[in-house]
Amino acid sequence: MTLRVLIADDQALVRSGLRTILEDEPDLEVVGEAEDGAHAVELARRREADVVLMDIRMPRMDGLEATRLLAGPGVADPVDVLVLTTFDLDDYVFGALRAGAAGFLLKDAPPQVLIDAIRSVGAGHGLIAPEVTRRLIARFAEVSPAAERATELEELSPREHEVLLQIARGRSNAEIAAALVVEESTIKSHVSRLLSKLGCSSRVQAVILAYEVGLVTPGGQPGELG
Predict the structure, then answer these.
(1) In terms of pTM, does the model score above 0.70?
(2) Which residue range or ranges hold the HTH luxR-type domain (predicted)?
(3) Contacts of 129 (CB under 8 A, 6+ apart)
(4) pLDDT tens digits for 97-106?
């Protein structure tokens, strides 16, 4: 399946660079470029984009509002949004994730990491850049405590609760399956059910919830989120 990708960034040079990276991939098709959030929303709908690479700081409408309109709660036909960010935009990233973004990635990520991220988001897995996850999610938990949301976990079965913990530690379905000694297809089913029970649109949203309720905390060992 070919993923239809829209690039939204107010800098023409950035858009051109991203297009050059993606055009060599047979399973990725760049269906348009937008210079601001309003144009991104309109073009994503008109060109039927599967994934939008979204900058945050743009004129007319920023990437946060554009993400909310494309992927936020109540959107009838959501489009997957992958936010491209830098360290100094932490607050915007938190807002974008809450608005429904499927993930975020640093702008200086290697080309292959970007390509893999688009494929991951397009496949419904979501993605948080490994090199920034601990910092961003830890800060998110510290500045936005929401212990009252812990009741949302009560609907999960013990196994789903365990899978959520593994997701929050940044582990893939295959890694979780190996750790729990079950088939990967079984983990996929658990993930689908727990996301539905929690009202989360992606694994990224589930990670945020896990941090907000204290299921995982900052300061874990290397390779773990908590």
Answers:
(1) yes
(2) 149-214
(3) 103, 104, 105, 106, 109, 113, 117
(4) 778 888 888 8
